[in-house]
Inverse folding.
């Protein structure tokens, strides 16, 4: 069995092509392909990937690429310019890196792990996964958790809006219960406000030159709009002021804030000016208990944090490699699973036959005594085959393994089964552990 990962992402293909490949029937198509035994599809705004387990790599690869060509409306030669193909351990490594957000547009972003979990849940619900993909995905989740726990890859803000929240936290310690005044109703103001609300701020008040837009935006947060003339009043109450207007002149001037500290009882006031040109006069920052950050300040913080994430990504890559090696060892054990299952099945079959043959001699025993005899026989048999099983496990990863597997089959006269039946039996045994 081979693991195959074929897909495209924001690095290899334009969004116009990625959009075409987003389809609800991809999973159905893959699992109906005869050479594909297990399948999972990951479709997000930044990537489309098919992850499959196959016994015929060439057929599976051709089937997936053909599907991409049909949806994308491109020839095979053209589509190959936009896709990547990973096999076996390279495919494992890629999935672990994706789950750990090392392959994302923004390193460390948390959304991708949830998207992978959703894709896996969909595959499980439709019964398109088996022993290999089940193990692969659980190991991917484990790796992602380990990366987040043992590195700081997700800790630092790397967007202007997140950087603003990070700075606000440093000043206020906690944002719970704080009041926010939004000046301007643009996209950046809304995004920053949403981040603040997620941190538990108490209230958001919206001011905009066009009052209708203030009404529209305030309705999204369950707050209320105010006119521009009311801004000085709300500066007394607000803890955080976010400004993002198209004004060519300062909206908040130092003169406006003189004496406000006394009215506010020396409570700190935090300005986030993300407008270009700026909305807040720079000299405001010289006033007591007033903190002003413009978009350049926030960008420098975001870039510094992005550099920190890149450093943490080095540690994360090492964790991924460690987990890939562990998964490699697990994959190698699959070679011995059919033999071990056959060995155990044969011993259980022998016990049942011999117990049945001895029924006349055991007829005077109580049900409890008969069960004790059966348990004793099973215990003896399992102990007899335990050493051969341990010996086979010790040869995993060595070139001599196949020789010992063949020898075991001959020594115990194990019946040969079809490759597909062995695989299905193995999958059943693992899934019911």
């Amino acid at each position: 069995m081979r693991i195959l990962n074929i897909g495209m992402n924001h690095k290899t293909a334009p969004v116009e092509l990625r959009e075409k490949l987003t389809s609800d029937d991809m999973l159905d198509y893959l699992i109906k392909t005869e050479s594909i035994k297990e399948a999972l599809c990951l479709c997000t705004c930044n990537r489309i990937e098919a992850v499959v387990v196959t016994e015929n790599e060439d057929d599976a690869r051709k089937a997936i690429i053909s599907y991409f060509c049909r949806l994308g409306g491109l020839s095979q030669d053209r589509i190959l310019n936009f896709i990547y193909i990973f096999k076996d351990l390279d495919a494992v490594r890629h999935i672990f890196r994706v789950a750990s957000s090392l392959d994302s547009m923004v390193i460390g972003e948390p959304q991708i792990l949830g998207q992978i979990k959703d894709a896996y849940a969909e595959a499980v619900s439709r019964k398109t996964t088996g022993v290999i993909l089940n193990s692969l995905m659980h190991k991917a989740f484990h790796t992602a958790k380990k990366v987040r726990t043992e590195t700081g890859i997700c800790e630092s803000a790397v967007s202007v809006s997140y950087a603003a929240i990070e700075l606000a936290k440093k000043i206020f310690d906690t944002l719970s219960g704080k009041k926010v005044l939004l000046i301007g109703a643009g996209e950046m103001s809304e995004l920053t406000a949403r981040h603040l609300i997620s941190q538990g701020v108490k209230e958001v008040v919206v001011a905009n030159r066009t009052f209708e837009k203030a009404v529209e935006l305030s309705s999204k947060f369950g707050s209320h709009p105010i006119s521009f003339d009311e801004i000085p009043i709300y500066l007394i109450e607000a803890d955080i002021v976010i400004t993002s207007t198209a004004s060519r002149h300062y909206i908040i001037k130092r003169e406006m804030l003189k004496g406000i500290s006394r009215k506010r009882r020396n409570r700190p006031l935090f300005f986030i000016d993300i407008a270009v040109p700026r909305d807040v006069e720079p000299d405001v920052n010289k006033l007591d208990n007033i903190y002003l950050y413009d978009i350049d300040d926030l960008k420098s913080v975001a870039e510094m944090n992005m550099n920190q994430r890149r450093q943490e990504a080095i540690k994360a890559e090492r964790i991924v490699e460690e987990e890939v090696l562990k998964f490699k060892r697990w994959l190698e054990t699959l070679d011995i699973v059919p033999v071990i299952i056959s060995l155990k099945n044969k011993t259980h079959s022998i016990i049942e036959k011999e117990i049945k043959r001895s029924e006349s001699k055991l007829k005077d025993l109580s049900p409890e005594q008969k069960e004790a005899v059966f348990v004793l026989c099973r215990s003896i048999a399992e102990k007899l085959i335990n050493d051969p099983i341990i010996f086979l496990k010790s040869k995993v990863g060595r070139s001599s393994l196949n020789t010992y597997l063949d020898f075991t089959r001959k020594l115990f006269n194990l019946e040969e089964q079809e490759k597909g039946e062995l695989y299905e039996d193995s999958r059943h045994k693992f899934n019911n552990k």
Observations:
- The CA atoms of residues 108 and 346 lie 50 Å apart.
- Residues 336-431 form one domain.
